[in-house]
Design brief:
By secondary structure, this protein is mainly alpha-helical. It contains 12 helices and 3 strands; from the N terminus they run H-H-H-H-H-H-H-H-H-H-E-E-E-H-H. The chain has a 3-stranded antiparallel β-sheet.
Length: 285
């Protein structure tokens, strides 16, 4: 295995734990850094590129001098036939501690269950992003299958945009590793923030069911969903899915009036694409 390594540099405990774990995996594999580097030549990275790393890069990753790139840590673990999930967990922890150290003196964000307004919600989302390793915005876009545009994520992280949409919050949390029932807490956090913004008024369900004329075929029922874009502007869109019909009464009078004002519109049919009805409706709102 060559000459002995230098002692791990004096560093934060989470980074030290990562460096120590990497060294233990190499020792168990019985490989030198040159041999590890050779093994990485044929390894694919998560982004589709090569996971190849030099011997010097791998040695620095286990030195404790700085938090290495995730790609390097995963390549190191793969070359040692070690647990990649554990390598990523330790890396995220080290990155998070590094991020918190840069915010020395700042109050810790509230848990999502206690978020009351959009300022707290943004702080909780940023904390979640840091716990996930503060990955590149493009990676979040890939993870969300394009739902989170990297430019939108960049504006949110930098504080350029206003309050996020509920859809953005859920997609962002999911891209940062939140799964299953745990996602509900983030949706509820947005609901509380929106309720506070409305001065305590209960957040209405964003849907209305209306009946519209369809020529000689008589009346047909369609649904209108209210949404908000990344700039905070509200808009309506057509839907034919009735899964929230029973909750339509929760809409405010103003929203119902807006929905009723376009009853004369034709609903989407098999001969009329949904997006055409949407464009037509926007001219009447």
């Amino acid at each position: 295995m060559g000459r002995p390594e230098n002692p791990i540099a004096s560093c934060e405990k989470a980074l030290e734990a990562l460096a120590r774990w990497l060294r233990e995996q190499r020792a168990e594999a019985g490989l030198s850094y040159a041999q590890l580097a050779e093994r990485t030549k044929d390894l694919p990275a998560a982004d589709g590129t090569s996971a190849r790393c030099s011997a010097d890069t791998l040695a620095r990753a286990a030195s404790g001098a700085a938090v290495p790139r995730l790609k390097t840590v995963v390549s190191y673990a793969c070359a040692c036939d070690a647990d990649q999930a554990e390598a990523e967990r330790l890396w995220k922890r080290a990155r998070y501690r590094q991020s918190r150290a840069a915010l020395r003196g700042a109050e810790p964000p509230p848990h999502i269950s206690y978020v009351r307004n959009f300022a707290e919600l943004r702080a909780a989302l940023l904390d979640l992003y840091q716990k996930d390793g503060s990955r590149p915005y493009e990676e979040l876009e890939r993870t969300s299958s394009g739902v989170l545009a990297h430019s939108t994520v960049a504006r949110f992280i930098s504080g350029v945009t206003g309050r996020p949409t509920r859809q953005f919050v859920l997609a962002f949390a999911q891209a940062c590793g939140i799964k299953g029932l745990a996602l509900n807490a983030w949706g509820q956090g947005w609901d509380r923030a929106e309720e506070q913004r409305l001065g305590g008024y209960k957040v209405p369900v964003q849907r209305a069911a209306i009946r519209v004329r369809r020529g000689l075929d008589g009346a047909a029922e369609v649904y209108l969903d209210r949404s908000r874009n990344s700039d905070g502007q509200d808009f309506w869109r057509y839907s034919t899915v009735p899964d929230l019909l029973e909750q339509a009464k929760a809409l405010s009078a103003r929203e119902l009036a807006a929905a009723q004002s376009i009853r004369h519109l034709r609903p989407p049919t098999t001969n009329r694409p949904l997006k055409k009805a949407h464009r037509h409706s926007s001219r009447h709102l």
